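Lab notebook, bench 4. We co-purified these components, and the gel suggests they stay together. Before we commit to crystallization screens, I want a quick structural picture of the whole thing.
Request: model the full complex, all chains together.
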Amino acid sequence: DQQVKQNSPSLSVQEGRISILNCDYTNSMFDYFLWYKKYPAEGPTFLISISSIKDKNEDGRFTVFLNKSAKHLSLHIVPSQPGDSAVYFCAAILAGNQFYFGTGTSLTVIP
Amino acid sequence: DVKVTQSSRYLVKRTGEKVFLECVQDMDHENMFWYRQDPGLGLRLIYFSYDVKMKEKGDIPEGYSVSREKKERFSLILESASTNQTSMYLCASRSMASGFTGELFFGEGSRLTVL
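Here is the predicted assembly.
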């Protein structure tokens, strides 16, 4: 049973606009949430994380929002750049060592 | 920088062959993981290891085994490869020193095709 879900397999955005990637989860016991970015033929790389006790974390162009009541996580990229085109995975950590990944969203930023 | 190195980027094997996928990390991380990535299924955990000589089954261990004789090396073994094991295999490591926030560091992946 998928505990972390990314319901949008793909997203296209114009360069300079905002990209919003969404993630839903079912387990209220998750401690931390992370976003990973993956280019083709490369391993995922860590992008940004948020603790379950926070509702927002910002790092440059990337902001992650956590809505615990809705069990919803989102990643905002502003402004979007062509180099942001990649597959984005959200992940949740349970009990400090169990990682659960979503199925990924492929973002295409159109120049 | 943390480096996780997977020995083979691309492999082609025949059904029934034994396959070894090697992973080495250079940051003295305690935890190591093997995932497979398939379209529409995301990353699924095969096995993980908390420390040397320790191993735990993940979500999809069937058809796989692992070995961790040294802290820096975690091997994934397919005893008898089958076509449904054609996939991208990703190794990852993590330090427990950073507690709950310890992110995973991934290797570049091994694309295995079983004919």
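DSSP finds no helices and eleven strands in chain A. Worth comparing against the SEC data before the next meeting. The first strand of chain A starts at residue 4 and ends at 5.
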